[in-house]
Structure prediction request, 456 residues.
Amino acid sequence: MMVTGSEVQGTSGMRRVAQVLALLCAVGLVGAVCGCGGSDSVGVAPGAAGGADEGGGFQPNAKGQVRVLVGFRDAPGAADEALVAQAGGEVHARFHLVPVIAASMPQAAVDGLRRNPRVAYIEPDEPGEYLRADSGRKKPEPSPPPEGEQVPWGMTRIKADQVWPTNIGAGVTVGIIDSGEDYNHEDLAANHEPGNPGWDFEFDPPIPDPYYTSEYGSRSHGTHVAGIVAAVRGNDVGVVGAAPGATIYALAAGKSGPITSYIVEALEWCADNRIRVAAMSFALQRETQTMDDALENCWAANVLMVCSVAGGGAGSDSVGYPARHPAVIAVAATDKRDRHAPHSNRGPEVELAAPGVDIISCLPNHEYGENPEGEATRMASPHVSGTAALVIAANPDLSNAEVREILHNTAVDLKPWGRDTSYGFGLVDALAAVQEAAAPGSSTVVLDWVRLPRGA
Ligand SMILES: [Ca+2]
Ligand SMILES: [Ca+2]
Ligand SMILES: [Ca+2]
Prediction:
């Protein structure tokens, strides 16, 4: 196994990062990226991988309080919550997916708490952005409901419509980590478990009601994404999602923007509840130890995580975080002519491409339309999340690594030939992927994935 320089650093978290990177490199999942010779991230603060221990990055509110992620050397308990409280902190969440407590505390108390021998690091609990308007393109108005049911062009392009006659992803669980949803939408309600639509992690403790209905702005975000993943097929209204039989859970990670600790709560819920796919369409300002560990432990819990690459970044190495993390499938956006969407970021971490321009989906209050905030890569990753659900329905015994490998192997290569920084392995192909998943003894290389310890 390859050993990277970071493996010899202090914490077990850093060792796990190195292990995951080495494993992913060894199995070729991330090609020339992931730190095995590649350079570090774009849009990420230097040194962020080890936490913001050098003091930067904390944004105090009007009361001088900062939101922090307190990483412990081993799983924190009630005594550690008391420790945080003694430092003037208000505890928001104590995780078991990662050895971390999320809290608000006076900025002046951070350094003192950091010196406690039980504390491994303290880093900012920062907001990110749901992927919305990445271009200056005019924002379309919501459309009236289409006559009858319309199959959006993206579904035809990824050949999901050719899968549906025999496989709608029935019962495969997908967590949609986003702004919350109008889960009563006529084209989504049937996809939610009755009485269990998901969670809103913005509340302490979280509430089982992730309901958001604003027609515009970020609050329509989760509804639009959910429609692409799973809008109901054959109900004579609206649209059809890639996996119209999937069971989806709205996991609200912040109304106006996602916050790291809410996302970690959502990932922890996915791991605890054996959710098969986590659909993500956001980008965070920088990498954190907490998020890195959460992604790795969620991957070890067999959750397949998919995230759009984000948009508007310059250059050939601008994939957002967490999409760029090795445990997450990074998805770029294409248009109706299979061209790389101009707003879609590029980079060596891109694994797949999927339709992301002119995508009709659900909007709150039984409406439909394109993304009301303009073009965004956020429509691309839900095509892949839904396709993954179809693959899992075809063969539920597949691990997340096997599903990922099938998606790679069956993608339609787009020029330049071979894996590239615009399309990754190519345009996702639901029909080929499902056939590959269902065919025993297929050509797919089955990965010998080494599971990492949970929350260690
Ligand atoms: Ca429908
Ligand atoms: Ca990645
Ligand atoms: Ca290519």
Observations:
- The first helix runs from residue 12 to 26.
- The pocket of calcium ion (ligand 2) is lined by residues 323-326, 328, 330, 349 (CB under 6 Å).
